[in-house]
Amino acid sequence: MLCLGIETSCDDTSLALVADAEILGQETWSQNELHALFGGVVPELASREHAKNIGGLFDRLLERTGVRAEDIELVCPARGPGLLGSLLVGVAFAKAFALGRSVRFIGINHLHAHVFAAGLKNKLTLPALALLVSGGHTLLYRVEGPDEFAVLGKSFDDAAGEAFDKAGKMLGLPYPAGRHIDRLAQDGVEEARLFPRPHTGKDNLDFSFSGLKTAMWLHVSRHPELKASFDVQSGELSLPRDRQTRQSLADTCASYRQAVVDCLCLRVEEALNGRENADVQSLILAGGVAANSLLRPSVGKIAAKRGLEFNVPPPELCADNGAMIAYLGSLLADMGYEHDLDMRAVPRGTPVPQDMFRSGQGGLGSKRV
Ligand code: KG4
Ligand code: ZN
Fold first, then answer.
1. Relative to the alpha carbon of 261, which ligand is closest?
2. Residue 361: what pLDDT?
């Protein structure tokens, strides 16, 4: 089935065409440079950028793939969670397309799509345990199928990506800072005990990263020299001139990265130790933070130790992208699911309802209007 996937949940506009788990083409416009001026995503600007770019990206996608609009059989926008103004641009575009061309339509849970992104390269073996780490979410899922996710644990404050981004801001790094901390950490040596491992050892599988952020704030206020500087006009990042200070900055990044990775891996191990997960066949790592060069091998080692298959998308499919939306959409369509065009976008903080219905069965949860 030829599916058009549309991702506009935050600050990337990304459209992709996927057929039988193969990406025929993908066009993405990242707004990182714009939001770096403000040190974080400005929602109103994000939705304006989506509205400005989505039509042109669609035209270019058709042009580059040689696919005709009339060949598209299914259209899937990211439905949520995300910034409402941003989501609405993609959802409205997809609804207009579905209505105008009379094709099937399914609104996709953005988080579930991140998890299935790994399936674009390797068919996933289920049931799986999935660690989803992005800028807005940190979740541990047990995954039974494209329509069956159980949340085992989640962060009750900052997400792992947010912990990287906010710490990076304190160190003078540009937004989003995760990849910069990761890069600097590669030249650093971990100082054990510099940062805590918050909320580990409790009797649940939840995460907390706000204590780590506070620890970074304290560390930076004691060592104000540990600052990079970023020129928003030229896009140039300057590190401290003095070699020793530069090394301390790298060591700080290495220690912080290790602390985040330890907190995540500990929960993965604990979830796998649970008797209820003894039947898990594979371990999935997903979301923007899954691009982290320490987290990938660390989670991979856990899988290898337990003889589990390990699935992680290539770095370019860890970040928000239209292909993951299209892929999960086509799996759900193969199971017979669709949405009515009265489906609503779901902002961050509101659970995404399971209100798809199977063709011919009428809406399950969605009220027809
Ligand atoms: O999944 P994603 O692209 O967008 C959301 O849905 O949030 O994730 C973005 C997050 C940002 O917080 C970014 O700093 C983080 O992923 N990130 C990284 C790395 N690359 C991106 N964090 C740590 N290490 C990286 N290499
Ligand atoms: Zn995302």
1. 1
2. 63
